[in-house]
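Why do we care about 3D structure at all? Because function follows from shape, and shape follows, mostly, from sequence. That is the central idea of this module. The next example makes it concrete: a single protein chain, its amino acid sequence, and then its structure expressed as tokens.
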Amino acid sequence: MDHLSSLSIELGTNEIDDDFPDANLFSIGVVPAWYEHIVKLLSTQQLLEGLSKNERRKVRVNSTHFALISGKLYRKGVDGLL
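And the structure:
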């Protein structure tokens, strides 16, 4: 029972629609390549081999916006907080 169904009848007799047709859970099964590069850099301080000079620079710059804590990647906010 939810809080809406416990309202008194004086407020109305219309049935409350609790159905949310777009309420779904989604899971991403593919890890983006940039995720792997940043995790590798933050965990070992080494870049994956085979990256071009521009790709290495981009990973280094983008990794400054992330923190790796207990194997999970967190994005830092503009104030530097997670």
